[in-house]
Amino acid sequence: MVTRIPELSKAGGETMGLVVVLVGMNVLWRTVRYALGFPLFGDEAFVANSILVMGWQGLSGGLEHYQIVPLFYLWGTLLVSKIAGSSEWALRLLSYGAGVAAVLLFLKLAFQILPRKTALISLAIFCASYYPVRHAAEVKPYSFDLLVSLIITLAVLGFIKSPSPRALAWWAIACSLGVWASYPSIFVAGGACLVLGVYGLVKEPRYLRPVSLVGLLMLVSFGLMYASVGSAQRAAGVEVLINLDLWSSTFPPWSEPSRFGDWFVHTHLGKMFAYPNGGNNGGSTLTFALFCLGVWALWRHDRLKTLLLLSPFSLMFVAASVEAYPYGGSARVAQHVAPAICLLAGAGLARLMRIAPGASLEKRVLAVVGFCVVLILGGIARDVRKPYKELADKVNRQVVAELAAQAVADEQWIVFGAFGKNQQGVPDLYDWAGSAARLRYYLLRDAGRRLHWGPGDAEMEKIAGKPARLLVYRHPYVPFPRTKYEEFLQRVQTKFNLGGSREYPFQEGAESLIVYDLETIRKK
Prior knowledge:
By secondary structure, the protein is of the alpha/beta class. It is built from 22 helices and five strands. It has helices at residues 6-9, 13-36, 42-58, 71-84, 88-91, 93-113, 116-127, 130-135, 142-161, 165-181, 185-202, 208-241, 245-248, 260-268, 285-301, 303-321, 338-355, 361-385, 391-406, 433-446, 457-463, 482-492, and strands at 412-415, 451-453, 468-474, 496-505, 512-520. Helix 20 links the parallel strand 1 and strand 2 (451-453). Helix 19 (391-406) runs parallel beside helix 20 (433-446).
């Protein structure tokens, strides 16, 4: 892949060596994190459970837990699970593959759009960035957002460089199919069409017809996707999402114009610009400053490419203004602009390094690469030391695995709780959010057909006569429904004698799982 990039193949051996080190270290980091098999956390479990219980047709409608996920990602992950099972590695395989592909495509994009040393700096920033690596090892579609963004951008630049029918076809395919694999890719594709459309009106009329064709195909494809899939997902989740702080805090405060300045600063100095690292409350100030300097530096040499990189931000802002999609707030919902941020931040840093007196530019570039390699090594060490997001995630997985390993033949598990609004006499664990969803995933995966969610009397009768256990989950932040539990326990005791019990604390608030051994009451 590296040797097939014309702009890079002309570079010297030192540049090639640094590229190989950066790309190799980044792929190693991604592979280590993926191979560690982090236990699923709540947000991942939301998507994983839909994939496990809904099937092909169900995934084309509204998803559980207000999730909004592209159909290609859902169907692709479901296909992998049919072939390779429902382990963490199987469910994250597509995200991991997309992440590795994104590194190679970013390499190609950087050396195509920037001078050699500047491209190397941008590549170093991208390879050392935490969030693209993290999201490539999750059961979430954010890694696809990054990959599709790169594919579309490269397709657009390919057409600009050589406006052949083949290049036009690749551009049209990337934009049309991209919206089925990544919802925010519409900002990248639409932004490029707007920029080239205006450019065609002002300077290059030959772009107008191709842009019109690609734009029409893209809008038709997006309309079909939204009518068949997106609208159902939006209807199932929009009321919850727009009230979440993750979304609502990212919408421009047009109703309170006096807050606009604070909103702008907070948004652009927060996690959206956390490359290679950063955070909220000004944690990404340096990256944003370098980004702005990079915009100025690239604008002086190539205004069209600068506008192409910036165009997704403008459409994101419009979408956020009508409360359709968040503008920043986190890195995960903005992975589609990660390439632009890293490229322009690298351009800004390169410009700053040329201005500052002192060591030669080559030595400074080498220092940046070395620093980023240290960040990568630190990321690998951190993941190895703590291969989980929260300790409760790890304990949750261990507990269910131990229970499954201890289970005897025909053993049945009765769960105090169910998922669905029509359950009677037991709590609806759907309302207990991510912690319960995480437990549900491991129960579905490891217990399978032995599970019975809040069974009624008829189902309880069928369980009687077999080895059984009662599982009682306690949510860390939801008051335990004591009355419902006592009533349910009385029903259980009409069929079973309660044996010994064990409580497994999950190390997060009051979260735990209590397991009772049940013995069928023998009729005299």
